[in-house]
Each structure stands twice: as structure tokens, then as C-alpha cells.
Amino acid sequence: MNYKFFIGIDVSKSTLDFTVLKDKELLFQHQGSNELTGIKEFLKHLASQKDFLLDQALFCMEHTGIYSHHIIHFLYARNAAICLQSSLHIKLSAGLQRGKNDKLDSFRIAQYAYKNQQDLTLWKPKRLVVEQLKQLTGLRSRLLNAKKQLSVAAKEVAGFDPIAAKSVKQLSQHSIKALNDDIKKVEDKLDQVIGSDEYLKRLFIIVTSIKGIGKITAAAMIVYSNEFKDITDPKKFACYAGVAPFEHSSGSSVRKRSRVSHIANKTMKTLLHMSAVVAITYNDELKLYYQRKVAENKNKMLVINAVRNKLIWRVFACVKSDRLYQNKFA
């Protein structure tokens, strides 16, 4: 699709900054409230522009979580072309920059959309059950963090002041119990959501058939890959999760060892690390692989990272062929 109008949107909690380009030419900039009234006002002003057609416009913005909810769903309901991009991706693509404000950011986003229009992937909403899964896994993570903050505090104090530690433990035990109850309710709701959709249920059975991949890791992989539709290549998912090693060399003199990038989804990386630890403990095949590589004086973290990659490849292979993992596949 060849677009004629490129609209960059800088999203914040209370305001939306718009920059409208007609090809390279700047038409106008506008600021409105991040509410339906502000969005409708902008669309009315945009529609009044000469030769403007909605199906010739590309709307581009950064990932901002719930702050972009109004504008995304308003535009999608009108079949507009929408692109969501990482803020870091847009920033690095703009080259050397000086100064920053919302108006300037929206202009840079519009320029990014114009320059990369042929390579951009249009946004499509996830299925409702996947959105529910995303919210539940996020809530569980926040509850676990709250529980950890209370539990760790008592343990750290115990080494220096046992009396104070006992008092802290007693005073926080009701809160910890309440958090445990809430975590259990969230996990029960997760099971309920998974069981309510046959396709999602089948995906979970396939992904968790690989020893080491638990329910929470499976849920994260399904959410972040959008049921393995947005990311279909295990190499790309490994890169996204920060477990893919990249070469670092230059000319004939610089030869550094390959290493993973810090630009990654750290939550997914942590879950995969935990899955790899479980796999080298309970999965006989991966346990022998780990022991063999360590015996060859390979760095332990390097071997664990290789196990993370093996788990990813196995998940994607099983999902692609729609079958359970078999330890002895013939």
C-alpha cells in the first residue's frame, strides 16, 4: 500500500501531539486531549484537508501501554492503518538528535513512518482471551513482587537483629497470606481463561509438553508472540528474548566473543532462564547436554543460554507442526 499522508502521534497520559505530513511536506501540527473528544476533534480537522482520504493515511506511534488505548481502538474501528513501534527503534533510526519535546517527537515519528512505510507491519488487536491472559500474568507478577518485598525484608533483618525480624514477620504475615490467596485466585482464573478457548488450550498443551516449560512461561510466550502469529521464527523470538548471541568483530584485529544483546524483553528472558534451570535438572537429555558441555570447560551461563535457545526451537517446532513434544521422535 502506498500512503500519501503520514501522521506521527506522541502519546502521553493526558495529551496527544499530532504531526501530519503529506509525503515529505509538513501540513500541520496539533495537540489535543487524550480522550475521545480530543481525538474526534483532530480527525475532523484532518478530514478537512484537501485531498485527504483515510485509506491513504498511515498513523504511527510508540508503544505506551494503556495510554494509547483510546486512539488505537478509535482508529482501528474506522479501518485506519496503524503502526506501533518501539521508542528506541524510532530514536535510533533518526540519527543524531538535539532537543526533545512532545511536538518534536511527533514530527520524528511521522518522518519515521514516511521513511520506513514499505517495511512497517500494521497493528492488529490480539484476541480477547490473549488480552485477558496478558492482564492476568501481569497482575500475578505484581503480586509476586509485593510478596517478595515483604518476605525478603524479614529475612535480611534476621541476620542483624533477630528480635526485629520476628516482629517484622509477625506484622506482615497477614499481608503475605492475603497475597498468597490473591496469587492462587489469579492462577485459578488463568486456568479458567485457558480452558475457555479450545485453540488457546491446545497451544498450552503443546508448549507445556516440553519439559522445563511451565504454565507461566508458556503464557508469556503466547502473549508476547500473539499466539505465535506476530513472531513465527524461533531466531526472531530468541533475539526478542535476549538469548540470541551476536558476533562482535571489526577488521582483522577486533575479535570479541559473541554475546547476547541487552536490548531485550527482560521478563521473557528471566522466565526462559528459570525454564532452562528446570530443564537441566529434570530433563535427562538436556541434563546430559549441560553436564557434557561443562565438562568441556564451557562457561556455565553460556551453556544455560544454549539450553534457553533449545527450548525456544522446540516450542516453535511443535507449534508449527501442531504436535506434542516427543523425547524419542521417529
Describe this structure as you would to a colleague.
56% of the residues lie in helices and 15% in strands. The protein has 330 residues and is an alpha/beta fold. The protein folds into 3 domains: 5-115, 2-Layer Sandwich (Nucleotidyltransferase, domain 5), CATH 3.30.420.10; 128-196; 225-321, no CATH class. The strands form 2 sheets. Strands 3-2-1-4-5 form a 5-stranded mixed sheet. The chain has a two-stranded antiparallel ribbon with strand order 6-7. Strand 2 (15-22) and strand 3 form a beta hairpin. The protein is globular, with a radius of gyration of 24 Å. The protein starts with a strand and ends in a 9-residue tail after the last helix. The model has no long low-confidence stretch (mean pLDDT 91).
**Strand order within the widest beta sheet:** 3-2-1-4-5
Give the number of domains.
Answer: 3
Unreliable spans: none
User: Which term fits the overall shape?
Assistant: globular
Question: Based on helices, strands and strand pairing, what is the structural class?
Answer: alpha/beta
Number of helices: 12
CATH topology of the largest domain: Nucleotidyltransferase, domain 5
CATH class of the largest domain: Alpha Beta
| Strand segment count | 7
Would you kindly provide a brief summary of this structure?
With 330 residues, this protein is α/β, with parallel strands linked by helices. 56% of the residues lie in helices and 15% in strands. Strand 4, helix 2 and strand 5 form a beta-alpha-beta unit.
Q: What is the fold's blueprint, element by element?
A:
Layout: E1 5-11, E2 15-22, E3 25-33, H1 36-47, E4 57-62, H2 69-76, E5 81-85, H3 87-93, H4 102-115, H5 128-158, H6 162-195, H7 198-207, H8 215-224, H9 234-240, E6 245-250, E7 254-260, H10 266-282, H11 284-295, H12 300-321
Parallel strand pairs: 1-4, 4-5
Antiparallel strand pairs: 1-2, 2-3, 6-7
Helix pairs in contact: 5-6, 5-8, 8-10, 9-12, 10-11, 10-12, 11-12
